[in-house]
Structures
1.
Amino acid sequence: MLKNIIVAPAPHISKPLSTRTVMIDVIIGLAPAMIAAGYYFRIYALILISTCVISSVATEWLCNLIRKNPKPLESLGDFSAVVTGIILALSLPPALPIWAAVIGSCFAIAVAKMVFGGLGSNIFNPAMAGRAFLTACFGILMTTWTVPATLDSKMPDISADNTLNAVTQATPLAWSKQAIKTKTGTQTVNDQLQAAFTGEIGGCLGETSTLALLLGGLYLLIRRTINLHIPLAVLLSAFAFAGIAYLINSDAYISPLTHLTTGGMLICAFFIATDPVTAPLTTKGMWIFGIGTGAIIMLIRIVGEYPEGVMYAVLLMNAVTPLIDRFCKLVPAGGKPNV
Amino acid sequence: MKINTKGRFSFPGGVHPPESKDLTCESKIQPGPATKQVAIMLSQHIGAPCRPTVEKKQQVQAGQLIGDCDAFVSAPVHSPVNGTVKEIALQSHAVLGRSLAVIIDADPDNNPPKLPCSEFKDGFDANKYSPDQIAEAVRQAGIVGMGGAGFPTRVKLGPNPQMPKETMIINGCECEPYITCDYRIMLEWTNQIIAGVKLARKAASCSETIIAIEDNKPKAIEVMHSSLKTSQNGDNIKVLPVKTKYPQGGERQLIKAILKKNVPTAGIPPMIGVLVQNVATAAAIAEAVVTGAPLTHRVVTVTGEAIANPGNYYVAIGTSVAEMIEFCGGVTKTSAKVVLGGPMMGIAIADLTTPITKTTCAITVLTKEQIGKAKFAGRQTPCIRCGRCLQACPEHINPTKIAHAVKNNLLDVAENYYISACIECGCCSYVCPANIELTGYIKTGKIFLARQRKKMPE
């Protein structure tokens, strides 16, 4: 009557969720930013995103072969390498040469992820580690910003870069760095707010359009792929620190709203800092992580030498995540047992 | 007056699995199969197992005592049928693996099917019985908690000077998907339940009594309400709709939802003056006290997409699972799992000769589609630390940390993260996108720890 019945621990039903569905949700969440990148940077976006995705996936497959994984293709099915590739691409300057993007992807997957044991075991966000490696190796390439194709090339500070055959422009954050030194010119940066909202400014491929990133973040929140704690903590703490600086001297420091909409702030808050593997597990831990990330970003932007601090802020907070998790141990609802 | 059937009371955490109760919620309680043979487990409860009081080839009558124990935390067992003891042998047991059982061949000519008790009318008066009388009748009838845990009811009801009980909550939540036996009992045996509630309240000397029902059972709430209203029935008994959420029927969660109090970790509800009883247990108490009949039959929901005729049956305890499935028309589709209990906390069995015990609420036969592809294949992927298990955990512990500690044989870490606080509700495994059997690992860890402390044999 009954053949082949299986025995397994309870529960015997489960929510129709898998790592793959979670990752596909993230990819859908990143879609608006990718579309915006395609609209503003045209062919650069296509080349960079496809290069990073393909080389990330290929690197993971090669690592599986080297590790003598009996099913080297199985781990690719969870799409986590695709997500890493997309996030890396979106955080790179649009006109980055293909070979540099390939090196960055290889480092992200091979060194930051597979060496630690693959998905779930990595300490650092792979995309940010890859970007940090590229910044360390090819500093000039990583700070050369192409102007959106839709933009009038008579804008200030625009110059033709012969090596990249592209029209380049300093980013608002680079201007703000200039403003900190000269104590003037913050108004020019603050005026870019509307351009930053739609994305019509210089910057990394997927970081320019505030609107697209907010849409994607909203999707992830509605799908409950991420929860509100980390994005809110990052943005609130960055807003607070930027606000303090702005109140002290509004000639030298740009407005907090400009800080939130420019650079990698939003992609960090919604897509990078929320990477579950490298963020704390508990709600309290998420707030500490988010506040720390926001504070380090602002510290680097206001006091540090670099115009942008997202990458280092995330990597630094990744490093202390195990510590945060240890400090934020949950106490059971019924209190500690009397043993 | 319109009765409010919407529940506001809830607890943090929990999940919303598909209810799947429509398979059996309209099917009335019917008599179960006339069994040829029953196997009465000598351990159907928490506490000391019984010793058999009958011998091989001895004649037994329905309701006769066949196993007893002198220990305080224990409950006797009785024969549900007239017949002859075939043997006393090991039988597969859903929880204990293999355990001793009295196997009785039923007399085919002398076994009318036992019908549910029809004694109870409106306005039952519990004052005829003294607390000691009630407690003794409960002990003699071998009543245990019928919601699943099987704690001897006599011990629960008995007065404890250190922990005086004030509030009694009657648990009619039935938060497990698929199961409808408590729902049917509430609809059909309403007066018997109310009589049992009054008797239990008297025995435990509780001042406040609340009947909690999840708000996905508006009919049960209305029936309970109106039958408490019509006569003098309802003195000081309140019907309270609670929010539909799994595991609302867990006693710790129910107390948290209604009284906003936490039962201490690894503690019991009487520590904060609360007593929780299942509705089926209340019905059994009424029958035992008024008619003196021992607990030999119970209502079992036979359900699941793979069962031909799902329904609720009043079954002799000791009937085998195979016989019940056959009685319900066998399985229709490719069945994949036979579960004793519901899909969230039930135990999957391989041996269908396993008998029904006092704590078996349901037999659920699931198909591959219900189980899901990953669970069917037993495929687990690495933890991505998404934290969904922490959000779902009603006890506010860290399931992934504990499960991975157990997996890597770090029992001290598991203890450090409060493995003992786990109620094994299965919410963490249910929400896990990586399909990690978190609850399974935690249960294993608890067994390892018990063995370390020499509380459990290897």
Note: Residues 190-204 of chain B form the longest helix (15 residues).
2.
Amino acid sequence: MKVSLTVNGERLEGDAWGGESLLTFLRDTLELPGSKNACEQGECGSCSVLFDGTLVCSCLVLAAQADGHAVVTVEGLAREEALHPVQQAFVDAGAVQCGFCTPGLVVATAALLERVPEHVLTVIDEAYFQYVEDPSFPDAIEEAAKRGRNVLALRTFSKIFGLAGLRIGYGVGPAGVVSAMRKVQRAFDVTTPAQEAALASLDDDAELERRRAVNRDAMAALEAVLREHGFDPISPAVGNFLFVDVGEDAAALDQRLLRRGVIVRPMGSFGAPSALRITAGTPEEIAFLAEQLDAVLVPEAGRIPVS
Amino acid sequence: MEVLRPRTLDEALALRAEHPEARPIQGGTDVLVELTFGHSRPDALLDLSEVAELRGVTQEDGALRLGAGLTYTEAMRAPLATRLPALAEASRTVGSPQIRNRGTIGGNLGTGSPAGDALPPLLAERAEVELASVSGTRTLPLEDFLLGVKRTALAGDELVTAVRIMPSGGAQTFAKVGPRNAMVIAICSLAVVVDTTEGEVRAAFGSAAVTAKRVTVPLADAAELPDLIAEAAAPIDDVRATAEYRRHALRVLATRTLERCVRS
């Protein structure tokens, strides 16, 4: 039977047998081999295409059902010489395993991102960004804001710069968003001394490097102390604090530490009632934390806090 | 193999009467696998995907009529998902986004697998199946429609056109056991509805008998539900699990889902 459809914007026609899938029709008859034939039962997604804009497995659509409809395959995502942003991102990140299912992953990812409407502003909070030492760590200013994505990247002077008391930070985003923010900026203006301090901080690379080194040592010392006390903090961490699961009673442990002069943050409000967030402090503070943990934890029981 | 492609319900019913041997196909998520792996080779396919009357949801006097072409993706969306939350939850467990975009409630009924994910929530809400042929329309309670493993009361000249439900408004949920969360056929599944208007708890299980089955208890005896479900189940040993495991897991799911509904 004749099947005539739009594929990647082009009107195409071909003969399909009655029980033929859209997948084999695309590959063998229309000579578009980008959609891969792997499981042929809707398990793997290698054959994913957009059918009238909806993500489907082409192995589970009858070729005949596509008659009169529009299909976009992985071949149709790129615009002339320019790869689709998702394809480019896969290339940049080396996002392949064996590579066979990659066309399906690309189509499915593109379809997923389509569902974040253009008018929705994505805000990425990078408060701890300057602590990060891995050069391959994603940078929202470089990778999203500067590429014209509808993304507002936020940075602060409250963390590594140590200017929390001055309440100052900055954001990088689309011009339209920034000009809209300017209209309400007056009520949230920062003082001239704060602006001066922030600008001076941005230029002091040597001091920033010193603080990164101090933090690196403090994070290692804090992790060691936590491990000595039988905990298994999530690591490697790239900020200036560790997240550690302490058992069922993080809030109670928090209170015991607080009475002894140690301030940590229970993570119940983040949906992790058994976890604490502990900031890497000075060597003296970390030693003090170790002493107080000795006092509030029963040594032989490991993690069980005593009252 | 011929593909018949009606555009209206009248055309579809006429073709169904003329070609009783034609296999109806909607989203294709079951039928394509059968065809591709040679499990069946019908002389003709009756493609229902262009029949507009089979799509959409309508409401009359509080009762919902879900067109047989309703996809799982559509069942997951508000406002339908707020009227039939257990069906929405069950739909979320079906396959992948690709499968949920194509697979339909009508297809789940037509296939009639004891593992059909939509069936327990529909049974627990006392759904009726609307069947049409050139000679008229009839409705059957879902429990009378499901006859056995992939066997239904659908006559040779009939098509499943809709599911009718009077939503109970009761707290309800769905749970399913499988080797992992995504892309699995249920080892067993359970939907529970706490219907305070009727003063009863209705539960329906899948993958633990030749069809999905419903168990009803008075609200006051809700605590007996796990035992009653385990008694009502008639599971088998197969590649996915043993009968003993299924019965045990159903008991666990019953306790868990009941607690969720009573707390909410």
Note: Residues 171-263 of chain B form a domain with the Enolase-like; domain 1 fold (CATH 3.30.390.50).
